[in-house]
TrEMBL record:
The chain crosses the membrane at residues 28-51, 63-80, 100-120, 141-163, 199-228, 240-262, 274-294. Residues 43-292 form the G-protein coupled receptors family 1 profile domain. InterPro entries: GPCR_Rhodpsn, GPCR_Rhodpsn_7TM, Olfact_rcpt, Olfactory_GPCR. PROSITE patterns: G_PROTEIN_RECEP_F1_1 (PS00237), G_PROTEIN_RECEP_F1_2 (PS50262). GO terms for cellular component: plasma membrane. This is Olfactory receptor. Its main location: membrane. It is a multi-pass membrane protein. The gene is LOC103213037.
């Protein structure tokens, strides 16, 4: 009997097709991405600088916020500069090791941010539900431990996904209809029947993510219960307002990720997949520093002090 020959191609590089369009559109894409990238970079680095040099920003919340900004700087730097260079040079290739590194870093940083957001919800829970013991519960040592655990869990998260994704063989085309190497696009290029390992990792990570999400919900259930027990309306609003930035960032992070996941799960058109990828790649890192800067009184004071010193020095 004749044996069926499977066309397995050893792919050593991929082509990131990104956004379609002529030379002028490519330059417009590059300009738009560059503007957003610089905005996100400036906002997050400003928060890192303020929380490092300002002695009034030494609370656990600001320590977590500094790490969140560092994650966002790294996260947006993994994909956007490469996409800008591709658009300007009209060269869309990325070698296999570079693609694997990009997948690892994206998943590593996304997992770390997810874990850190859970830690920040615990910080808000301790501050509102146990204010008298807050400094004991969330001390400096505990903060370092929780942040370290967040970074390590993100590293494990990235390792298992890059191992699962690149354990498959790729058949046929090496065209990725995306502006960076993401797992759904890579799995569409894999040979038939070789998705099982990565799908198992995806299911396991979804279960883990669901547990973390439930823990965030439980934290906020206790927070809402504590806020409702406050007698004055002004006291309720003042207490709950300390949670609004974190709650907004969590909502933004989950909603953008959910939209991107649904876009890939339901096999939406490539243009829609690109738009959802832009949503979760650009929006959270760009808006997170704005959300926290506008809602945090100490941060606004530090910002005005910094720019006030600069203005005086110029006179």
């Amino acid at each position: 009997m004749p044996q069926k020959i499977v066309n397995i191609t050893i792919v050593m590089e991929f082509l990131l097709m990104g956004f379609p369009g002529d030379w002028m559109l490519q330059k417009l894409y590059a300009a738009f991405f560059c503007l957003i990238y610089l905005t996100a970079l400036m906002g997050n680095l400003l928060i890192v600088t303020l929380t490092t040099i300002d002695e009034h920003l030494r609370a656990p919340l600001h320590f977590f916020l500094k790490n969140l900004s560092l994650i966002d700087v790294c996260y947006i730097s993994v994909t956007i500069p490469k996409s800008i260079m591709n658009s300007l040079s009209n060269s869309h290739s990325i070698y296999l090791p570079g693609c694997a590194l990009q997948v690892f870093l994206v998943m590593f940083l996304a997992g770390t941010e997810y874990a850190l957001l859970m830690v920040m919800s615990y910080d808000r829970f301790a501050a509102i539900c146990h204010p008298l013991h807050y400094e004991t519960i969330v001390n400096r040592y505990a903060c370092v431990q929780m942040v370290t655990a967040s970074w390590l869990s993100g590293c494990v998260y990235g390792c298992i996904h890059v191992a699962g994704t690149f354990s498959v063989n790729f058949c046929g085309s090496n065209l990725i209809h995306q502006f960076f190497c993401d797992i759904p696009s890579l799995l569409t290029l894999a040979c038939s029947g070789e998705h099982i390992l990565e799908y198992a990792f995806i299911i396991a990570s979804c279960c883990f993510s669901f547990v973390c999400f439930i823990l965030i919900i439980v934290s906020y259930a206790h927070i809402f219960s504590a806020v409702l027990r406050i007698s004055s309306i002004q006291g309720k609003f003042k207490t709950f307002s300390t949670c609004i930035p974190h709650l907004t960032v969590v909502t933004l992070f989950f909603s953008s990720g959910a939209i991107a996941y649904l876009g890939s799960a339901f096999k939406s058109p490539s243009s829609m997949h690109l738009l959802t990828s832009v949503l979760y790649s650009l929006v959270p890192p760009t808006l997170n520093p704005v959300i926290y800067s506008l809602r945090n009184k100490n941060m606004k004071v530090a910002l005005s002090k910094m720019f006030g010193v600069k203005m005086v020095s110029k006179i």
